[in-house]
Amino acid sequence: MKHTAKKILCTLLVMVMCLTVAPLSGFVDFGITASALADSGSCGENVTYTYDSSTGELVISGTGAMTNYISPYSGPGSPFYYSDIKSIVIEDGVTSIGNWAFVNCRSLASIIIPDSVTSIGNFVFLDCRSLASIIIPDSVTSIGVGAFEYCTSLENVTIPDSVTSIGGYAFDCCENLASVTIPDSVTTIGDSAFRCCENLASVTIPDSVTSIGDEAFCCCESLQSITIPDSVTSIGDEAFRGCTSLESVTIGDSVTSIGDDAFRHCASLTDVYYGGTEEQWNSIVGNECLTGATIHSHTHSYTSTVTKAASCTEAGVRTYTCSCGDSYTEAIPATGHDFDGTKCKNCSYDKADDCSCNCHKSGFMGFIWKIILFFNKLFKTNKTCACGIAHY
Ligand SMILES: [Zn+2]
Ligand SMILES: [Zn+2]
Ligand SMILES: [Zn+2]
Ligand SMILES: [Zn+2]
């Protein structure tokens, strides 16, 4: 009897342990379980959702903005947090994807975003590790902070040319991201925007970008070369730190500061092609982080063209241009008139028009003067007119 009681107690204990430990470990490892998502509900003032748990499809419809949720780590977050959603269709009419909306949706593989959406909020797809591709419509103007952070499967992303800012951490740790084209509408690349994109082999920074944030491309281990366009004036701290495959860097001549350790732990970096002169390079704050590489600074080499031809009376312009874009001009002196009699051979100027002598006049005065000149000829005076032509 005592033995049986002990057995029952043991079984009870195991059952209690199973009941407590399982949800406990579940909480620690996985957060709120998938069953938390209802079949339908609200996710904005005029935005609702329906969810089919058998297919994992979530459809969001309505008009206006989705709710901006808070982090699920600091309170009750989005209803979609850590759900088993496999695909999302956002219907036309919805204008934003709210902050933290789909955080931790690790089964999410596809999403359709309509072109009524203008903003993708902060941390929207944080940790959506199955999301391999996304088409951002060209209505979207901003990609929020951490929007695609830890989307480790994301390989392809097309950023449309409507986007003007890429938030910090936007693509942080997108480990499979192989290439990204940043459109020339983007002016700032936020801090840590592409940090730890280990497969990112190529990236084009357009010449609309003026600043590259701290750690923006830190630990992009596949990046072999990078061109920083002439529009960029500052490169953030640790911007390219740990880019271990980086061999060459082209830096435009507008850069005035390079942040601390911007190119630290870039052991392969041997060549820096700088668009400015050696003197300009020496004036850049923080350039010492590149002393391990050979700096190929620029020496201007100009070719000249006549951009405005000189005329009889106006100076022309000769423009000297270097391949770097640097240019200066030089004046070409006016040619002066080339007279045949009182008329210029090259333009419509006639000296006679400016001459006060009556010999150029027509009508009665001209007739009288011609008679006077006839007598002058006899007395050998007035051989030359005031304008320089011969009177006879
Ligand atoms: Zn030049
Ligand atoms: Zn002339
Ligand atoms: Zn005259
Ligand atoms: Zn004259």
Task: Please outline the major beta sheet.
Answer: 9 strands, parallel
Shape by Cα distribution: elongated
Helix content: 10-25%
Cα(first) to Cα(last) distance is 155 Å
What would you say this structure looks like, in words?
The chain is of the alpha/beta class and 392 residues long. Among the domains are: 31 residues, no CATH class; 41 residues, no CATH class. It has three helices and 27 strands. The protein is elongated and about 125 Å long. The chain starts with a helix and ends in a 13-residue tail after the last helix. The site of one zinc ion (ZN) has 8 residues, from loops.
Brief overview:
The protein is α/β, with parallel strands linked by helices. The chain has helices at residues 2-30, 278-282, 363-379; strands spanning 40-44, 47-52, 57-62, 64-65, 87-90, 94-97, 110-112, 119-120, 133-135, 142-143, 156-158, 165-166, 179-181, 188-189, 202-204, 211-212, 225-228, 234-235, 248-251, 257-258, 271-274, 294-296, 302-308, 316-322, 327-332, 339-340, 343-344.
Features:
392 residues, elongated, binds zinc ion
